[in-house]
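Sorry to interrupt, but I need a hand with the structure work. Could you add the entry underneath, on a fresh line?
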Amino acid sequence: MNAVRKAELIPYIPFDRASAVPFYVQIYNGFLAAIVSGRLRPGQRLPSSRALATELCVSRIPVLNAFDQLLHEGYLEGRVGSGTYVRARRVHLNASGTTSRTALDCAAVGRNGAGGSRAHGVGPFSNVPAFDGFPHKTWARLIRRHACRPSVDLFARGDPAGYAPLREAVGAYVSSARGVDCDAGQVLIVSGPQMGLRICALAFATAGSALCVEEPCRPSARAALDIPQNELIPVSVDGHGIDVCALERLGGDATAVYVTPDHQDPLGVAMTASRRQALLSWADEGRRWIVEGDYDSAFRYSTRPLGALQGIDTAERVIYVGTFSNVLFPDIRLGYLVVPRSLLSTFIRIRESLDGCSPTLYQRVLTDFLGGGHFARHVRRMQTLYSARRQVLVERLHEHLGDVVTLGTADAGLHVVAFLPDGVDDQNVVRKAAGVGLFPQALSTFYVTGRAPSGLLLGFGGANESTLETEVRTLGDVIRRML
C-alpha cells in the first residue's frame, strides 16, 4: 500500500492577478490541469486553503470555491481530520474488454484539450448530463457481471439489428413511456442518434431528392442528414412547431422531413396537436416520410409530454429516433430507431454496411439496466436533480441578466435558451466566455439562413448549484462588455 504523500510544498499553478479571468476559475483550472497531467498524483495531499490563499495573496473565498468545485466533480476527496487529497482514478472495462476513462476523466480531458478539442469539453453551461448523478457502482457491477463471464456470443459479431433482449426492452420502454406503437421486431439498435439519422438519409436518397429539416436544427443532426444525393431544405419553426404550410408549398420536391416535435431542438417549443395532425396528413397524402427525433422527452418540469408523433401515426410514415446518451452518458454510443415494417430490411442492410453492429457487451449491460429497474430509478432521480438546477439557473439569470437577455421556453431538456440583444454577436460571446472558463453554445450556429437570432444555449445538467451565481455574473460581465 502506497504511503500518503505530505504536501510540504505548494504546487505551482498559473495565476495572474491582472487577468480578467476570475481568481477561482484560474485556481480551478490550474489544479485540474495538474491532476489530469499527473503532476498532482492520486493520494497526494493538497495545501490548506489558508496556505494557498496566503501564497497567492487572495482571500480564502476563491480558493474554497475552486476546491468545492473539484470536490463536487470527484477530482478531490476530503478526509475528516486529515485534509484534502487527489482522488484515485477509477478504471472501467470498455466494450472491447480494455480499460477506458470514467466519465470524470473524460470531463477532465475535454476541459484541458488533452486528447480532444475544447468543443468537446465539459464545463459551466456545456450541454451535458449530470455525471455526478450517474449510478457508477451499479453500472460497473453490471459490466463485471458480463465481462467476467465471457461467451462466444460476447466476442463474435452480433446481429446488425441489435441484441434481441435489448430490442425487447427498448420496445417495452418506448411503448410505455412515450406511447410508441411498435413491437421488438421494429426496433433497430444503432451507435447513437447520428448513425440513425445517417441511415434515414441513405434510405431516402434518390437523384434530386430533397430532405427538409427544421430551422433551427442541431448542427450534428444536419451533418448526419447531409449526403450528396439529398438536398437539405430548411423549414422555419414558430411557437407551434414546424411550418407545415411551408412544407406544403414545396409540393413534390420533399421526400422526407426531420422534426423534433416534443421539445424542438434547440428552441424548446412543443408541436401543437393540430400541427402534428397536419404534418401526418402531409406525409400520408404525399407518401412522404417523417423522421422524429426524440432526445429530451425524459425530462420535463411543469407539463406532461404529448407523446410520440409515431404513436398517433396510422399510416406508418414515421421513423422514430431515440438515444440513451442524454439520459445516461454521451460515450455510451447506443441509440435506437423504431422503423416502419416496410422499411425494416432496407434499414438493417444500410446499418450493417456502416459498422456491422453495436458492441454486444454494452448492449447486454443496458438490457440489465433497463430490465432491473435501474433506468427508471435513475430517470426519477435525475428529474428531481435537473428541476432544481434549472430553477436555480433561471432565477440567477432573471436576477443578474434580466435586463440584458430574454429567456426562451425552458420546460424540458437540459438547456435554457437566452436571447441576446440585437447587435450582439453570440459566436463572439461564446469565444469570450471560453476565455473565462464558460462553455455556452451560440444559437446562431443552429441556423443556415441569414435570419438567425442571437442567443446562447446554457446547459444546466452538469451544473454546480453553489457556483451558478458566480458563473452567471461572469457571463453577464462578458455580455455587457459587448453592448
Remarks:
- The chain has 16 helices and 16 strands.
- The first strand starts at residue 76 and ends at 79.
